[in-house]
Amino acid sequence: MSEHSLNDYTSDPESSEDEIEPKLKYVRLSNDLKSIFHKSSATCIAVHPKFICLGSHCGYIHILDHQGNSIQGKQLKAHTVSINHISIDANGEFIATCSDDGRVFVHSLFSKENNLTLNLGRLVKTIALDPCYYKGGANRRFITGDNNLTLYERTFLGNLKPVVLCESEGLVRSMCWTSNGNFLAWSSNVGVRVYDINSRCSLGLIKWEEHSGMSTERFRCNLRWADEKTLLIGWVDTVRVCIIRKRSAIELANRDLPEYLVDPVSTVQTEFFISGIAPLDQQLVLLGIPKVPEAEDSQSPRPQLYIVEYRDNDCVDVCADSLSLRDYQEYGVNDYHLDVLLGENQFFVVAPKDVVVASPYDLDDRIQWLIEHSKFEDALDILRRSENGNGSNVGNTVPQRHTVQTVGIEYLDHLLREGQYDEAGRLCLRIFEKDAQLWEDQIYKFASVHRLRSVSPYIPRTSDCKLNPHIYEMILYEYLKLDAQGFLDLVKEWDPALYNVCAVINAVLEHLLNCEVNKNLYVEALAILYSYEKMYDKSLSMYLKLKHKDVFTLIEKHNLYSVIEDMLTTFMDLDYKKTIALLLDKQPIPSGIVVEKLKSNKLHLYRFLDEYDKKNIKGKYHRELISLYAIFDRENKLLPFLKKSEHYPIQEALNICQKEKYYPEMVYLLGRMGDTKEALELIINELKDMQHAISFCQEHDDQDLWEDLINNCVDKPGKWFYLVKFI
Fold first, then answer.
1. What is d(CA 453, CA 458) in angstroms, rounded to the nearest whole number?
2. Domain around 60
3. pTM of this prediction?
4. For 172-180, what is the mean pLDDT?
């Protein structure tokens, strides 16, 4: 037996991106068939689950296994001319044949005593053994078709007795017995009849319409029982599906009618001439040749095998495969035959010089075809559905040769060949899931093309699925060389327990020796790596070198507050808010030392004491705050601070304000010191604020102050008018 690619059996040998998934696969039988076809040609076939019977033009019956090997001693010379038809009983023990030589031959495969040769002296076109012929007794009967439909059965004395069941309009052209032996379908020149064997009556005629120029006599009528009650007929270019239905009690009571009737449920016209018909689940398999105009020199077209889905009087082609059978150009529609092993869904297509077996694609076949056509997602979908118990009903429901992993690996290789690295990385997560061994085996494929970065987001990193540390280190090294930001992100994201941190630190240090770009990113990564190894001094050094604010996180996380004192100014320069927050919340350094350390940088000192004062109500550093507010935030904070605090030397504060000519603050301080006269003069002469002057006099309620204010306004009409109006 030799298996061929689909292209050997399709009319379009050129591949296409939109090629439709095939429904059938084909195997050409060879072995001993080669020598048989070298000597003669096939005229008919009958298949049984145990063997094949092939009839030839020379009158031989060849008994073969399903691979085309001759079964030893089973080549029978039954006739002198072509064999017309072969019938096999249900158990595969008896074979019956007929021929135009007028002989009927019944052969027992196991006992010569039961062989039978009958010479009828007329053309015999078809024969049917009782399916239970092997049981003996009343079952030892067969039916022949010539000018009549004749039953041959044994009498009480064991003699063979012919009984004419029906007369035929012309020759009986074909017949088919149900597997339970109840009904026989047969055809003549005018149509198809079904005969009830048990009741010995005909159930009626299904007349066949002749189309213009196409006589039914030119075409073989193809009959097939799909089951004990469903008859399939393919004749000329018409398909008819009939159901054997039992009549109702009312019908039987009123008229003398057969118990059963034949009900044609579907009639379909085809675009081809039919050579054979067979069932496939709820569909039909049809063998035929396309209709082409006749011409003297024209060659016959390729035969085609169709799968059709029928409903009522309409059908839809599921697939149509053109078959490259040997010497097909020389043969017509009646030269081809189709037989089927129903239980195995194997369809035997016979030409005079060829036998091809078609069978539906099972899940493995479908998956293999999808892989070969780079339809990996469809293949994986089939496998997923099969795992979930939703597999196809055609063929085996559980793939035997393919798994999600094997197909996934082929898909992975395809994506890598196509340069679709990111898609390949995502695929790994779907296919390998938590299989550490698969991850480790396949990830080297990414390393070989320097695309570990494409798979790194998806590799497992959890305790229940952890890879060899070398895998994580390989990925880090690739990022180190090719993607600085990605390297830093992985160092931050990955648990350091996944890899050898010291090895990675050494790699970073070596890389920095020759690195000209992105140095800060590598130094930041180095700081994190040092912290993983508890080398906090080096980690701090890296952060401070970068002026990176994550240094505060490091300090808090690992309780490194003691380092702040020696580098206080550096930390303040980096982020004074975070530094002050640490100083006040954790109090790692006494405030006095902080003030001493910061006194050389008044801005830092101001920021620290300003926050310190909010949390310390004792007024410890109010003296220092006066001068600092005067420098850095006089407008918003100095005067309110002077008013609320009792913990500063007033004269020293006045001196600072006098030096900077901060008149509102001087007025307040002079008032507190009792020097209201000088304070009023500042309001009138420096601030030039009559409203303030009047309020100041009212506040202190001093007659001398009022007199000073009035005297100041006497020779100034504007001020005098304002003073009089207000009073």
1. 10
2. 40-172
3. 0.72
4. 95
